[in-house]
C-alpha cells in the first residue's frame, strides 16, 4: 500500500505536523499517566482503522515497557482483567469520544462521572485533548493512506526543535 500523499514533503503539511507534535508533547508531559495515554491512543487508532497509528502507538508503548498482554487486550478491554478502573474510565471516554457519529449523545454522563472519579482537572484536560488529537491524527493518516509497519520508536523526536 502506497500513501496517496506525503504531508511531510509539503511545507504547509510539515508546519501543521510540527504544531500537532507540539500539542502532543504538551499532553505527553501532563500528569496523565503515560501508560493511560498509550492505551487511549492505541484504542482510538484501532477504532478508526489507522494502521500507521496502531503501529506507532504499539511500538512506543512497548518501548516504554507496556506489556504485550495489555496491548493485545486493548481491543477487548471490557472483557479483560488487566486494566485498572481508571484505565477503564479513560478507555470508555476514548470510545465514546471517538464514536461521536455513532453515539448521538456523545460521552455519557456515566462515563464522565467515572472519569471525574479517577482523574483530577489537569489529567482530564490532557485526556480530553488526547482523545481529540489522536482522532485528528488518525483521520490525517487514514485520508492519505499512510500505512503501518515501518514506524521506529522515537522517529519524530527531531520535530521537537
Automatic annotation (TrEMBL):
Its protein name is: Carboxymuconolactone decarboxylase family protein
Where are the bilayer-spanning segments? Answer: none
Species source reads: Nonomuraea phyllanthi
Mention one GO molecular function.
peroxiredoxin activity
Reading the lineage from the top rank, the first entry is Bacteria
Q: Where is the Carboxymuconolactone decarboxylase-like domain?
A: 24-96
